[in-house]
Amino acid sequence: MSAAEQRAAAREAYRQSVAAGAAFTGAKLAAEFGRSERWGRDRIAEVRAEDAAGDNSPAAEQPADAGRHAAAQPRGAAATAWLALALGVGASVGANILHTVLVIGNGGGSVPQVAGAAFWPIALVVAIEVMARVRWPASIGYSLIRFAGVGAVAVVAAVVSYKHMAGLLAYWGEDVLSAHLGPIAVDGLVTVGALALLAIHKARKET
Asked: Which of the two ends of the chain, N or C, has the fewest CB atoms closer than 10 A to its terminal CB?
C-alpha cells in the first residue's frame, strides 16, 4: 500500500469509527496503521477539512468535535485532580515552612530559609504545568529531556519535603511509624494528582 493509499484508508477508517459512534482519537487511528500519533491527528484533520468543504461522508453527519467527546474525561475529573495536587502541595509547603521555623530556626528562621523550604513543592507544580501545557516536538530527545527534568524536580521535592514533614511530625510528638508514613501519603497524593493532570492534558491533545 502506497503512502497515499494508506492515508486514504486511514481517513475512511476514521469516518467509519465516527459513524459507529466511537470516533478514533489520533493515537488510536495511528495505532491501526502503525504510524505516529501526529500522523493520526493529521488524518483526522483532513477528514474534518473535507467535511467542512461539503463532503457528504458519514463524518459530515457528526458534530465537528465528535472525536473530542469520545476521549473526554468524566465531569469534574480535572477539578478533582487539581484538588489532589493542591492539597498535597499545600500540605508539603506548610510542613516545610513550619519545620524550618519551629525546628530548624528554633522558633524563628530567616526569610531565605522559609522561601527555600517552600520552593521545592512549588517548583514541582510549575514543572508539571510546563510539561503538560507545552506542545513539545515529537522526538525521543525532547521526551527524554522533559521526563528527566520533571523527574529530577519531583525526586528532589519529594526527598526535601519528606525530611521536613517527618521532622515536623516527630517534633509534634508523633510516634516513629506515623512520622515516617505521613510524608509518604502526602507524596502519593501529589503524585496521583500530577499524573492525573498529565493524562487529562494528553487526552485533550490527542483530539
From this structure: N
